[in-house]
Design brief:
Keywords: Signal. The chain is mostly beta strands and 265 residues long. The protein has three helices and 18 strands. The chain has two domains: 117 residues, no CATH class; 129 residues, no CATH class. Helices cover 14% and strands 50% of the residues. A hairpin with a 2-residue loop joins strand 15 and strand 16. It is elongated, with a radius of gyration of 28 Å.
Length: 265
């Protein structure tokens, strides 16, 4: 009996210290939530995090109610807003309930009207926004050290050095070239998310992985022999020329052994 008498006041005290709140996305109250402006490539975002003791149980856009939870049972922890210009076009609401945390997604349309969308629909909207703002760039394999818009990984397998190029976030590769010579250029909506450059002796190989939003991906393999690029259909990237082992020492994958051997003839 004493236990019940103590428990009820404590329960009421906890409830009294928690104030369910309404969050207006147009004018977030800094007493209720912390806000941060973020940029992720072409994406402009605002992250809103509920302050402890102020669970968000209603989310509105001005006088339009977007989402509603239930006090002490279902509330919002964080909201991520996506912007086009100065207007919100997408929201990602992290909801905490009796069964854990899940996310709910809304597309904001003209006049602040909205519709609930699935996670797949949300992902598509984010991808479309990135795609609409992607900067097309080219990869020049003759100036490897100057490719600041690419992530570059180096792999050394038994002395054979490979460089793996992938565009940084916000960029898309639509052309691969060697100096002034174009090795590959995108058609339609093609992109090259990965390009691998590697040498085996006097031959230099370039493998271009080509993706397309609808068509099947392609794997293009090119080989340089004596300064001439040719397309090959095999993965047997080997060079039978003598003295080529020295080429493996050059990080830029350029073969000078061929030049040296020719100069001695």
């Amino acid at each position: 009996m004493n236990f019940i008498a103590i428990f009820i006041p404590l329960f009421l005290l906890v409830r009294a210290e928690i104030t369910p709140c309404t969050l207006d996305l147009l004018k977030p109250d800094d007493i209720v939530a912390l806000t941060s402006d973020l940029e992720n490539g072409p994406l402009k975002l605002k992250l809103i995090v509920a302050i402890s003791g102020y669970p968000i149980t209603k989310i509105a856009i001005g006088n339009i109610l977007l989402w509603e939870g239930r006090s002490f049972i279902k509330h919002c922890d964080t909201v991520t807003l996506y912007y086009k210009g100065q207007k919100i076009f997408l929201t990602n609401i992290s909801v905490r309930g009796l069964n854990g945390v899940h996310n709910e997604y809304f597309e904001i349309m003209s006049g602040n009207s909205y519709r609930r969308i699935s996670q797949m629909g949300y992902n598509d909207k984010v991808s479309e926004t990135i795609g609409d703002n992607m900067e097309a760039i080219d990869l020049d394999i003759s100036t490897i050290e100057e490719q600041s818009k690419f992530s570059i990984d180096t792999v050394d397998e038994d002395g054979q050095v490979s460089r793996v190029f992938s565009p940084e976030f916000g960029f898309t590769c639509t052309e691969v070239k060697d100096g002034e010579e174009t090795l590959w250029i995108a058609e339609d909506e093609e992109t090259a998310p990965i390009v691998v450059v590697y040498g085996d002796g006097c031959c230099i190989f370039v493998r271009i992985f080509v993706s397309h939003p609808v068509n099947n991906a392609k794997n293009i393999l090119l080989k340089n022999e004596g300064g001439t690029w040719i397309s090959i259909e095999t993965d047997n990237c080997q060079c039978n020329s003598q003295g080529c082992i020295s080429c493996k020492k050059y990080e830029n994958l350029r073969c000078i052994a061929q030049t040296e051997s020719n100069s001695k003839v």
